[in-house]
Amino acid sequence: MDPASLDDIIHRLVEAKGSRAGKQVRLLEAEIRQLCVVSKDIFMQQPNLLELEAPIKICGDIHGQYSDLLRLFEYGGFPPAANYLFLGDYVDRGKQSLETICLLLAYKIKYPENFFLLRGNHESASINRIYGFYDESLIDEKILCMHGGLSPDLHNLDQIRNLALPTDVPDNGLLCDLLWSDPSKEIQGDIHGQYSDLLRLFEYGGFPPAANYLFLGDYVDRGKQSLETICLLLAYKIKYPENFFLLRGNHESASINRIYGFYDECKRRFNVRLWKVFTDCFNCLPVAALIDEKILCMHGGLSPDLHNLDQIRNLALPTDVPDNGLLCDLLWSDPSKEIQGWGMNDRGVSYTFGPDRVNEFLQKHDLDLICRAHQVVEDGYEFFADRQLVTIFSAPNYCGEFDNAGAMMSVDETLMCSFQILKPAEKKSKFIFGNTAAAKTGTPSPGVKVSSCK
Q: Among 63, 122, 147, 299, which one carries the catalytic annotation?
């Protein structure tokens, strides 16, 4: 391709940064065809697994939002001022897919060793016959990048290097997973200041952002390192606000953690003012989460005052936890095999509810599962109401007085749930990990088997 023609195309495309959003850039069909043909030759000459070196700027989906692409370049530096790796999905949905892909291809042609384009799931079917995007990248042999995620069929990187191109995207298998899969959602129960166990859970499930996390509350009190526990969780929430989620437990309340240890830890190590700052923060925590409109999560359980999910959405924040009512029940109630309907709670707060209430609630709201914490369970997790409710508790050897395991629940994109177990060990010895077989939510089946990894 003639360098002067290429520079002219880039000039016209970049010149649009001063124009109104959505204004089309004048490009000839012959120019677009030439960009596709020349860039395809470059893609075919480079390996499937691009082994890149830092420093490099990595960008996610663009989806035809051309004015935003130009803003990214203004912020990070127009090529060749910086090296770039794009992770796919350049086209579709936005109004200027043509301008977007043409500028990216033009930069790929002009700076083939500094500008890299991976394939996304939207670079598929008839589109990939023209554009020919590649699937993976490795930076300094340490950072693996792809558009989607990992695959159960991926055992070594040579499998990626040996993928045959050009090819369409199949409905399953390695290539499909690399473009379509997402990190699982890891759900954790009570931590209660057991900081070393929190770190072990991250070691097992992957430190953020390797996995998406949802914690069900009760981060402080009783354990010896409530401050370290809550500070790490808040730091991850700030760093990964769209992938790391913290719900409120009944111990994220001034009236409770004033008694059970967090207040004393703050006062001993810092001052009471810091405890009050945490109280203000806790009063703003959300109290429930809905995963893919099918799995409802909270710290405690159901409430006789809960008739629809909009009631939870409309709870006013910031707020302290009242002594009764919807918010209190979401943080305090417990399931009970001994009753039908609603019963009095031995805690002296809120209610207990029977399996009939769980079944009725799920059917009414078209849900598959209720996931909650709040109670110590021997195996770290425990099903209730024919597997329609599960209790997760993530602090093993709770308070040094129980022999319970800790658990976290992984939810994949098909809503298949599996459990990773942090098993209790002999006194004064290290914990060992275990895992369980997977189970589909809401599906009664034989007991889940546990295997230990020693």
A: 122
pLDDT in tens, 254-270: 999 999 999 999 999 99
Q: What is the CA radius of gyration of the chain?
A: 26
Cross-strand bridge partners of residue 37: none
Report the run of H or E that residue 71 belongs to, with start and end: helix 66-76
> What CATH number corresponds to the domain at position 17?
3.60.21.10
| DSSP string for residues in 284-338 | T---EEEETTTEEEESS---TT--STHHHHT--SS-PPPSSSHHHHHHH-EE-TT
Give 129-150 pLDDT, tens digit per residue. 444 333 334 555 666 766 677 7
Tokens for 208, please give them: 């953020």
pLDDT confidence band for 325 (50 / 70 / 90)? very high
Q: Are residues 341 and 281 in the same domain?
A: yes
Same domain flag for 84 and 155: yes
Average pLDDT of the chain?
A: 85
**CA 269, CA 271: separation in Å to the nearest integer?**
7
Taking CA atoms, 236 is separated from 2, 279, 283, in Å, by: 49, 19, 19
| 150 and 234 in a common domain | no
83 half-sphere exposure, CB direction, 13 A CA radius: 10
pLDDT value for 400? 85
According to DSSP, residue 78 is labeled: S
* pLDDT tens digits for range 42-52: 888 888 778 88
Q: Reply yes or no on whether 122 is catalytic.
A: yes
**What distance in Å separates the CA atoms of residue 47 and residue 164, rounded to the nearest whole number?**
11
- Strand, coil or helix: what is 47? coil
Q: Are 154 and 279 members of one domain?
A: no
Q: Is 174 exposed, middle or buried (0-12, 13-18, 19+ CB in 10 A)?
A: middle
